[in-house]
Amino acid sequence: MPSADRLDATFAALADPTRRAILARLALGEASVMELAEPFAMSQPAISKHLKVLEGAGLISRGREAQRRPCRLEGKPLAEATGWLEQYRQFWEGSFERLDALLDELKASEKNPGT
């Protein structure tokens, strides 16, 4: 079970569309800050701020290859957030199944009153 602070950091980082786009790009493979900044109409320092948020949430890490510091996607926080959401998906699925069963029971009693 992930800590509440870690989930908060993950969801806060995912709340921004630029950060989600950066994660989508990194899902294709490592990239430098310059490569990540290319598709956005914002300054490199602005992209760096987004990367710091993602790095702080543990969603990315930065390596070092000579002059280059490639960013890479880290899956564990996303897996933890998915697991947390999955619990609620299962809860709602169970609730809908019980509601379906109740509706079927009501329909059956309307067709056959007194049974």
TrEMBL record:
Gene3D superfamilies registered for this protein in UniProt: Winged helix-like DNA-binding domain superfamily/Winged helix DNA-binding domain
Pfam short name (any one): HTH_5
CDD domains named in the record: HTH_ARSR
UniProt GO MF annotations: DNA-binding transcription factor activity
Domain of life: Bacteria
Domain HTH arsR-type: 1-93
GO biological process: regulation of DNA-templated transcription
Annotated InterPro entries: ArsR-like_HTH, HTH_ArsR_DNA-bd_dom, WH-like_DNA-bd_sf, WH_DNA-bd_sf
NCBIfam families xrefs: HTH_metalloreg
Name of the featured protein: ArsR family transcriptional regulatory protein
Species this protein is from: Gloeobacter violaceus (strain ATCC 29082 / PCC 7421)
